[in-house]
Hints:
2 helices
Amino acid sequence: MVERHSQPNPYFQVGWAGNPFSTVHDVFHVSMLMKYVADPTYVVDFEPLHINENLSYEEQLVEILAKDVKMLRNRGIALVKVLWRNHGAKEATWEREANMRAVYLELYKD
């Protein structure tokens, strides 16, 4: 019978003293929350959102940011860049102007 000696693990030899995460707590302490002082200027007003039965909602147009014509081979498609409510300017989308005219008549009274 051959007697085997186990070699020590090189990671284990470093020990806990060399562990860079030894100073990080692994538990979230509630006492950390008690240090916050409430400030009434941080309260954000919001509009209630009407949610349908299938948990969807209808986007509301805020304003038209830009207009452009996308040229294909033999015709052009009029596009408008639309800013939606509850979205930032980076999330504005390009929509067909004909579709926007059909849905939002009040914007195109001219």
